[in-house]
Design a protein that fits this description.
mainly beta, 14% helix, 37% strand
Length: 185
């Protein structure tokens, strides 16, 4: 991720009047869902973002100097029933989720490209229901969590060929498994 704000966005953040917003991009197998913290449809970075106003909550994104993986929580409520059913019927585990920040000018147009503040993968989705609304709480983890996952790669000919077709460098490994070698005679 870039560590430099776009110049127009940095200028806008220093202005006396500011219209900041956050945006969430969630990737599913059927497509990408985009929301922003305003009302109506916003066009930014060549994409349309659906406004859900005050019903979008995003926890604080933290970052540690020791490269520790941290997560984020996105809360969505008041969603359209078609979007809600699509999310609930989807295999969401480890699907990409990104959080962006931006600012609007006086004409409610984004002043620059959006700035990505979090890039991770969905871990869990919790459903909270009460009498008048359904709230989805999405927990996402940083991509740094992958550093803690065990690698299950095997040094076999079949796996080598699945990763690098035509590579025969491990073709004879199976023959060496039970071979008696007389070393130093």
């Amino acid at each position: 991720m870039s560590r430099t704000l776009p110049a127009a966005l940095a200028t806008e953040f220093g202005a006396t009047e500011l219209k900041p917003f956050q945006a969430v991009e969630i990737t599913f197998s059927d497509g990408v869902v985009r929301f922003w913290t305003g009302f109506g449809t916003l066009t930014a970075d060549g994409e349309d973002w659906e406004g859900i106003g005050q019903v979008l909550g995003i926890s604080e994104a933290t970052e540690a100097a020791d490269l520790a993986a941290s997560g984020i929580t996105v809360t969505l409520s008041g969603l359209d029933t078609t979007v809600l059913s699509a999310i609930l019927n989807e295999n969401y585990k480890l699907r990409p989720l990104s959080i962006y920040v931006g600012a609007l000018d006086a004409d409610n147009v984004p002043v620059s490209t959006l700035y990505k503040t979090f890039d991770g993968r969905m871990d869990t989705i919790n459903i909270q229901e009460n009498a008048d609304k359904v709230t989805l709480v999405i927990n996402a983890e940083s991509r740094l969590i992958d550093l803690n996952r065990p690698r299950t790669r095997k040094l076999t000919d079949a796996e080598q060929k699945s990763r690098y077709p035509g590579d025969d460098s491990l073709a004879q490994v199976a023959l060496l498994a039970d071979r008696q070698l007389d070393w130093g005679k």
